[in-house]
Design brief:
lipopolysaccharide transport protein A fold, LPS_export_LptA, 1 helix, periplasm, 11 strands, about 180 residues, transport, lipopolysaccharide binding, LptA, globular, about 5% helix
């Protein structure tokens, strides 16, 4: 039996704790800290409940940061419900918490959904935390259950098409120190 080109891997909670140990809530809507947005241009549509930002877009809430070429914010009656970011690549950074390293992620598309409590990184997705690295075509992170789901993609010059992970042993500082 020939393996399919697309592979789905469900990783246990322990692996999610290794890769994304900080309780990633992306942008915290319960926080008193505002989300600040800057961009080269913006189009706000109150009727549709959308705001489209283009050109060197930066969203910041405290130390959490999202940079992209284009960002669309969706509002519902309850407030901000979804963020869609795209770029070459778009980049998401979340500060370190409780002794864990900062989370640095990039992908061509990054989506945050408040209703699903999910961060989705698509197309050439890479998540780094300290020296740990996780790559896949699609990486989804359930921020409440702390479960990572990853899919490989079609092999290309830039990617093997498989989900790839590098997890450093406990107590390892930096592999380049050897």
């Amino acid at each position: 039996m020939k393996p399919s080109g697309k592979r789905t891997h469900r990783l246990p909670v322990i692996l999610a704790a290794l890769m994304l140990a900080s309780p990633a809530t992306a942008f915290d809507l319960d926080s008193d800290t505002p989300i600040k947005v800057s961009a080269d241009s913006a189009r706000l549509d109150d009727t549709e409940g959308t705001a489209i930002y283009t050109g060197d877009v930066e969203l910041v809430q405290g130390a959490t940061q999202l940079n992209a070429e284009r960002v669309v914010l969706y509002r519902s009656p309850e407030g901000l419900s979804r963020i869609e970011a795209s770029g070459e690549p778009a980049r998401y950074r979340q500060p370190a918490r409780e002794g864990e390293a900062m989370t640095d992620a990039r992908a061509r598309t990054i989506t945050w959904s408040a209703a699903e409590n999910r961060l989705t990184f698509e197309r050439q997705a890479v998540i780094e935390q300290g020296n740990n690295v996780f790559r896949g075509d699609v990486i989804q992170y359930d921020t409440v259950r702390r479960v990572v789901t990853a899919e490989g993609g079609t092999p290309s010059e830039e990617s093997s098409g498989r989900v790839e992970m590098v997890i450093q042993p406990r107590g390892s500082s930096n592999p380049s120190d050897e």
